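Minutes, methods subgroup
Present: GH (chair), OT, SY

1. OT presented the first of two proteins processed in the latest run. Sequence and structure tokens recorded below as shown on screen.
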Amino acid sequence: MSTPQPLTDLHPSYSDDNAEPTQWAQASKALSDAELSWITTVRPDGRPHVTPLMTVWVDAALHFCTGPEERKCKNLMDNPNVVLTTGTNTRREGLDLVVEGKARRVTDTSNLHRLAEAWVDKYGEEWRFDVSDGAFRHASGHGEAWVFAVTPSTAFGFGKAPYSQTRWRFGRH
């Protein structure tokens, strides 16, 4: 089954004259390759909460895990809307990405096993998880981690050589 392609727009006011829109294939590869992302969730009082985490890109969604008692997880229970960002942290090279969507908890055992393997493939054996009761369990005994998937609703890419601002819209256009 092929992944639907998003509607892609280049914002000319924030792009160099010779800029082209970044292709979604390039952006999804950058999401897949990123060692670190930042997640923004919303606290119950409306303030933002931002923290770094590791993600895997599987089945056209970013996946992350967190303990059920962590602030970001508590925030997600009240409001599943998130922003995930990653990039190069440089001014004149690379691609910065912003992914907007809703986090949904993954509890299906077969999907969790596939995702656990994706973590090992990307981050190595120290990130090997066991799966039980709809969650990851770390072999070191650090408790359980809940897994969430964020399928992009909208994403933005900020290219820097040349400068460009691309927007991708998914689903309904």
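2. SY then presented the second protein from the same run.
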Amino acid sequence: MDQSLSRKRSRADWVVDTIAFLGAVLVGMILFDENRDDPLPNWLFAADFYTGMLLCLLLWFRRRWPIQLAVLAAVVSVYSETSGIAALILTMTVAVHFRLRVTLLITALNVLSVIAYALVREKTDPVGIVIVTASLLYVGAIGWGLYVRSRRQLLQTLRERAERAETVARLQAEQGQLRAREEIAREMHDVLGHRLSLLSVHAGALAYRPDASTEEIAGAAEIIRSSAHQALQDLREVIGVLRAPVGELPQPTFADLPVLIEGAQRAGVPVELKLDAPGALPEHVGRTAYRIVQEGLTNAMKHAPGAPVRIRVTGAAGNGLTVDLSNPAPRRTSSGEGQGLTGLAERAALVEGRLEHGWTPDGDFRLTAWLPWPA
């Protein structure tokens, strides 16, 4: 059964029902007037007229009881010519809202009523002609009803597809936003963690160097002030991206790696860099390499302050890029730490690379990553 039968009648439904009612009444009265000369008793003429008009009136309820009224129309059509158009409309209603099997059963019942009508009304036309004519009318009504039904189903299918497409697009947009925010969270960890590690190194130097000269104290304070200002600036950029509907945090490139090393050296971290990677790296690979070096420096300053850090970044197109960081005697991380290394492993996996970390037999902590570099 069509679900449109249970919905509230719309303005268009009111217009259609009004036209159907008026058309059925008008045609019914014309047919009744044309058949006044039939040799029938007066009570049959009266029954024809009043039951036919009643059936026309019941067209207003055809959306509520379509099958019941169609069966009633088949019964009334046995003797009533006035109800002919109303019976056609009720049969078409069944074709619009129900499956073909139900429609065919109602149609067969109406064909039987037409045969009985030809016998009861004692028509001068042959019974075969009456049956063929009535059958053609019912076939036309059923065909129109099936067309309306198929069109409604097509529109409903297209509407559902559009709604599903909108839902899928909304979910994809939400997933994209979640991935963007996850990336922003990683950037916050990498950028702010590195800045705050520099602050910690200089603040610790001031705390353990009470005999430092005024110039040294002023220089360390200036570096602390500059790093704190830059950390706040990075935080503002992150908050701005989170508030904006669309946007990305400014991404570093592989070419910014020397600047990163220089900043760590200014902070007093003894860093030795060997860079041997001629050629143009893919952007995503270069950015991943930068983040690995940045996280390695941050961990070194956090867990082994003052210890020298050796960095090797070597590779070539077709062979891949190797990033290797090591520093002696780190302080082993406690439970709950190491989230930055987990994030680095995920970064490397996203570009189809791999990352390893751990302690060497000499007691150094080593962080090694291999990233693909297509030829």
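Chair's summary of item 2: The first strand starts at residue 271 and ends at 276.
Next meeting: continue with the remaining queue.
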